[in-house]
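User: Predict the complex.
Assistant: Input components as received:
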Amino acid sequence: MAKIIGCVTTSHVPAIARAIARGEQEDPYWKEWFDGFKPVHRWLEQAKPDVAVIVYNDHGLNFFLDKLPTFAIGAAAEYQSADEGWNIPTVLPFKGDPELSWHLINSVVTDGFDITMCQEMVVDHALCNPMALLWPGGKPWPVRIVPVEINTVQFPLPSAARCYQLGEALGRAIASYPQDLRVLLMGTGGLSHQLDGERAGFINKEFDKKFMASLTADPAWVTRYSTIELVERTGSQGIELLLWLTARAALGSGAREITANYHIPISNTAAGMMLLEPAA
Ligand code: DHB
Ligand code: FE
């Protein structure tokens, strides 16, 4: 049977791709952030995932405001990376796992989630940057991927409670897949940030820290807030924490922290990273 081996959540700021392209990982601005991934690299060498199920948000590349699903799952054999306007390099294409994708789609639809199924999908910085942080060096990706896309761009957004339930449904779906696969969960985006409007530059360290702590001890904690309350507390793009929450919910009730990093700022963002394992 498939087995969930861990969950990595990380910010996906486009500037990360530029720093990688320029080789700036040792620069004082970047060092603390990139160094935070060293324990993750060591863990991945041991954990050897076959597939990554990646909860992320499209930023106007594959979906635009004219047609925007709330939840979408990719079922392609290959996903090309593309840049929706940040002037960042693309990365090597990602191999999909259509059989696992269709199993997840069937399972979550049976569980009551009316998701959009995508047999073609291009993926933006929100998927590519976290992959490049986990597997640096520009070599062919050592895992296949299944993208799980959630609208955090245009209201109405799904609630934290609904995202948590989708995560739980994904966890059940993965656990019921008959192949012996080692599955890594990923959730991207966040933490607190707001890119535009009167509160541009808004960051809420206290809330971010509470949220990160909740993911080990009390993962449903943030579901008490509405999406509007979460935008108030974390910024209009900080709501990307829904993607962390969904991935975390798929891990199951108990989790232990292997490593974490929190760094202000990267670009306009309070950048966070966590690696969790399921509780033994
Ligand atoms: C930034 C952060 C994001 O999450 C994003 O999608 C784009 C830009 C930023 O902080 O620059
Ligand atoms: Fe983003």
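The mean pLDDT is 97.
Let me know if you want any component modeled separately.
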